[in-house]
Amino acid sequence: xxxxxxxxxxxxxTAIASAKGQSxxxxxxGQKQVDIPFxxxxxxxxxxxxxxxxxxxxxxxxxxxxHTILSKREISDMLKIHYDREFRVKGSDLKTDLIAxxxxxxxxxxxxxxxxxxxxxxxxxxDYFRFEEYAGVNVHGIMSGNVFSKYITRINYDKRxxxxxxxxxxxxxxxxxxxxxxxxxxxxxxxxPMEAVRDSSAMVKLLIDTGAGLPLLLFSNTHxxxxxxxxxxxxxxxxxxxxxxEGFTGRITRLGMGDYKQTNIVTYFxxxxxxxINLEYLNGRNGLVGNALLSRFTVILDYHSFKIWxxxxxxxxxxxxxxxxxxxxxxxxxxxxxxxxxxxxxxxxAEEAGILKGDQIVRVxxxxxxxxxxSDLQRVFQKKPGKKxxxxxxxxxxxxxxxxxxxxxx
Length: 410
Description:
single chain, mainly beta, Cathepsin D, subunit A, domain 1, Pdz3 Domain, 6-stranded antiparallel β-sheet
């Protein structure tokens, strides 16, 4: 499903580099650590914050984003926030200009936890993300990972808690393994061995990206050994600013994460059209690691010492699951429970069952879709090969029963 692979490419925010740097969040004076709960929905870390002392908003915590971004301009307009200047930012094709505005000295609070008194943020002219539609998650923007970077930051995916530690009082425990990182434009990169296929090891440079819901994405024209496997399928691999991201989906044999190894990883491959883009913002990287892989660990980020630490979590040995239906679904409605088939993979169980683009899924098994969310549907369509899934679709006002027989697609 497209929504499982949603991520955003922010590679060309050149103009804002001259703007005043972000101050980030602060703990109360004398405080040595603070625990910040988060929601983990569809492989996205979601923080609840208030902006300029108003109602609560939901932001994705995104270590792959250079700047904090408000995607709902109607909120800043309602708060009568002044826009300092206009910027052109690059969309997911790395070429199309989209419009954003700089807003200065915005106050963010995570109530009872931390305060960011003077943030410079970008406000999108339109909601280019369309995040609700493609991820089934209500959010108002993206919070750059840099807002916590003055502290050592621990992400405990199992407990759904981000802990900030004062640097002078923090001590790492022996059960964590350190990995050196490069920090460039407020983002972290690791160099690590990867086997796309067995016995073909390559060193790759990957962005640590908690704003990506996928396990691993590779740019297939950045290294001779980085390319889709022979059985990869053509697919919309995600949704970025300005449109779909076309590419392939397959599995790679192995990826190193320090002393740890992950195998048979669901991987998305994008071929970059590098003509006419500023390659500086790729920073020589071959791809990114997203939350579907990072969430198998407890992760500690230390921007100042150029390290991350990892410790295996509950999901460390789990299989990497992928859709076995061939359905790509988007959602809408006030409760995000209207599910429309956006596309059907050629030769898939969904196509064989006669499901068409534009069909509305109204029942899955015994459950009406009004009681399900997009993650629920994904879990159903990721069940074991051979599983029969009965669904009801609405087409031109008529309800039609269909049965899918799930099978491995990659």
